[in-house]
Design a protein that fits this description.
Helix content is 32%, strand content 11%. By secondary structure, it is of the alpha+beta class. The protein has one domain (7-147): Adenine-n6-DNA-methyltransferase TaqI, Chain A, domain 2 (Alpha-Beta Complex). The strands form 2 sheets. The protein has a 3-stranded mixed β-sheet. A hairpin with a 7-residue loop joins strand 3 and strand 4. Helix 2 (89-98) packs across helix 4 (127-147).
């Protein structure tokens, strides 16, 4: 997750979009300075191109693929996972949209914690099958979007 940004560090206009849980996957309504962005990006965790970010609070499971644009994300509410080459990000994006997260039923405001991720089980095919599955669903999503 990204380093915490405080309200007083944001503005309604600016250099770098700051996505909060309510604007994640949509249009930003807050921005941070380029200087703060560069400092935090260098010092703290930051996604790499292709990483799949997921909402971990409120509307759980909303995903966005990080494309490399200058943008910053709300700490602990928007997360991603570092993994090795045994997991394909396009497959991971599919899993995030389908999986039933373990241990979050019954709470008023749903929230994903590390424990939920670790306890949630799903089948992990070999990397070539993951890529094919991920590409298939990505194409299907694009096809549906074109027809809407």
């Amino acid at each position: 997750m990204c380093k915490r940004i405080f309200k007083q560090q944001t503005a309604t206009k600016g250099d770098v979009p700051f996505y909060k849980i309510g604007t994640f996957g949509g249009e930003p309504d807050a921005y941070i300075s380029k200087e703060l962005f560069e400092e935090y990006k260098e010092k703290f965790n930051y996604p790499e191109i292709g990483d799949v970010l997921i909402s971990a609070s409120g509307t759980i499971g909303r995903t966005v693929e990080y494309t490399g644009k200058d943008e910053y994300f709300q700490d602990s509410n928007i997360v991603w996972f570092k993994h090795d080459d045994r997991v394909d990000n396009t497959f991971l994006k599919c899993i995030y949209s389908l999986v039933k997260w373990e241990g979050i039923e019954g709470s008023t405001i749903k929230r994903l914690y590390n424990e939920n991720f670790l306890k949630t089980k799903f089948t992990l095919p070999n990397i070539n099958e993951q890529k094919k599955i991920g590409e298939y669903f990505e194409q299907l999503d694009n096809f549906i979007a074109l027809h809407q």
